[in-house]
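<instruction>
Derive structure tokens from the sequence
<data>
Labelled lines for chain and fold
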Amino acid sequence: MSDTTQTPRPSTSGEESPRRRFFRRTAIATVIAGLASGIGLTAFALGGGHGGWHRGGFMGAPLDPAMVDERLDRMLTHVYAEIDATDMQKQQLAPIVKGAAQDLLSLRGKMHDAHRQAVELLSRERIDRGALETVRADQLELVEAASKRLTQALADVADVLTPEQRKQLAEHIGRWHRHRG
């Protein structure tokens, strides 16, 4: 008798199991939601004024880069106060958050283009399923790119903060989520 247990080996067929695919998609959605609300990258998506998500949101009307920058500055000021950030941390955090926001704005534009292309394909006399599938696959690549960029920003921010500051930020995020419902 052997005391060792064999661990299952990953499939070599290159196909993901439904369970792994579900986990990956859930992880991506969690990372995106956590980063967007926690670090404040949602500021780039608000679009304008009170209730920006309801007036267009991430995929809404074009955003003014100056307004995005202003909102990020305001949001960062609140985050700095919440976690008692040092001047050095402030100098490190702003470029991380603003760089991620600019990269995500670029992806947002590409998502708009893909949406327009899908609508155009669906409004034709004959439906080109192959073209629709290409648009769908391209959109998944954009979501994957956004997820990677957000994860990179999260890790970069985490590197700058102390464990206590990360805890304070997590508590702040929790309060914000409870308040927002």
In short: Residues 33-58 have pLDDT under 50 and may be disordered. The helical segments are 18-38, 65-83, 87-122, 129-160, 163-180. DSSP finds five helices and no strands in the chain.
